Amino acid sequence: MRSTRWKAASRAALALAGAGALAASMALFATAPASAGTTLGASAAEKGRYFGTAVAGFKLSDSAYTTILNREFNMVTAENEMKMNATEPQQNQFSYGAADQIVNHARSRGMSVRGHTLAWHSQQPGWMESMSGSALRQAMLNHVTQVATHFRGQVVAWDVVNEAFADGSSGGRRDSNLQRTGNDWIEAAFRAARAADPGAKLCYNDYNTDNWTHAKTQGVYNMVRDFKARGVPIDCVGFQSHFNNDSPYVSNYRTTLSSFAALGVDVQITELDIQGASASTYRSVVEDCLAVARCNGITVWGIRDSDSWRASQTPLLFNSNGSKKAAYDAVLAALNNGTTPTDPPTDPPTDPPTTPPPGTGGCTATVSVNQWNGGFVANVRVTAGSSALNGWTVSIGLPSGATVTNAWSANRSGNTGTTNWTNVAYNGQVGAGQSTEFGFQANGTAGSLSPTCSAG
Ligand code: G2I
């Protein structure tokens, strides 16, 4: 089993990891980030989520654009620059310049990156559009392998396959050159992606899958259930959530999110925009995500209305002049009021969210390992005891030959033998009986790991 709760990296935490100065880190841990509660990313991070946006590379020279981007968001999706036609314009000639620019902009500022997308019937390069059969299958798998390898360690989640299901009442697959290579093309893509980047979460991403009663939603649900049952490496499902008059938000959206989550995958809202940007609809979407423990975060598909692929629908959170809309205020308020119940949603908490006192009831840590030949990913769950935690330390002894190469959502000392892990700025405060997660990737063999946890 892979992680059950996404802990998006807050800017403060990542800046901290980069600095690596213990004294500075202790000071930072003591206080919440200065922007907590006042920006989308910081407020989402306080709820263990991220708040992201699609970014168009050519806009990074627009300072009005980057001012909002850098202030508000802690997750970035390349709007077009990681698509197949952008990254492999000629067969076996890969082009990463535009995508790398976005990745570097994001990561150098402590934002994480979602990869979009490795395999799609649309936006294929011309050479691929005209291919079929086993040659196309091989070309697609090579593309997945090459691109996921290039961005290995830099992309936290990939839309491995995008929009593979048909609209309408069939609930089946969309016809495409990729689909005609055989129904197993999707799982083949996921396996190739896992092999290339074992640390990235692997998502299936689609639109018009928001309404639980729609055949397309059920078709994707059945595929994910089948993948989980057969061990196909899928970690998450992306709900694009382009809401408009023809495809409106519906109140069963929360049921959709929680039903998929119950299959054992994370769910993410990946391309949110809402025709007319109703504040109450935006609020509902945020509340729905916060009500589902495995809803990791929300990405809006652009910053200002003028940045939208549907600009005339004014569907985003900022006006074309960069000012905040009512929908922005609604989203921020929903993030700040939100709670993080477990799945299925439980009764609302009776106490308002407060800063917990230092923990006295200890904590426990459990680990789940995804081992492959030569390496593994470990996801560690830290659970507070009878008192809230205000900081935690987990100790994990690694068998000889195991070496940590990469980690997330915790500070580490040691990469072999006894390793010690402490909370980062955004996940040290854990309510009584509540949990948070961190993880790491390592070379070698995990064997059976026995983490121990202490409060503080
Ligand atoms: O169509 C909205 C989204 C639906 N889900 C998948 C997303 O990848 C998709 O994004 C849109 C981008 O927002 C558009 O910007 O995907 C379109 C098609 O890839 C993008 O449009 C393309 C135009 O079709 C091209 O002509 C143009 O060169 O944008 C390109 C770059 O501006």
Automatic annotation (TrEMBL):
- Which reaction does this enzyme catalyse, per its entry? Endohydrolysis of (1->4)-beta-D-xylosidic linkages in xylans
Q: Which SMART domains match?
A: CBD_II, Glyco_10
Q: Which residues form the GH10 domain?
A: 34-334
Which PROSITE patterns is this protein grouped with?
A: CBM2 (PS51173), GH10_1 (PS00591), GH10_2 (PS51760)
Say yes or no: keyword Signal present. yes
In this chain the CBM2 domain maps to: 356-456
Feature: compositional bias, Pro residues:
342-359
State the residue spans of region: Disordered.
336-362
The residues responsible for catalysis, as annotated, are: 271 (nucleophile)
* InterPro entries attached to this UniProt entry: CBD2, CBM2/CBM3_carb-bd_dom_sf, CBM2_carb-bd_dom_sf, GH, GH10, GH10_AS, GH10_dom
Q: Which GO terms describe its molecular function?
A: endo-1,4-beta-xylanase activity; polysaccharide binding
Q: Which residues form the signal peptide?
A: 1-36
Q: What is its EC number?
A: 3.2.1.8
Family listed: Belongs to the glycosyl hydrolase 10 (cellulase F) family.
Q: What is this protein called?
A: Beta-xylanase
Organism whose genome encodes this protein:
Micromonospora arida
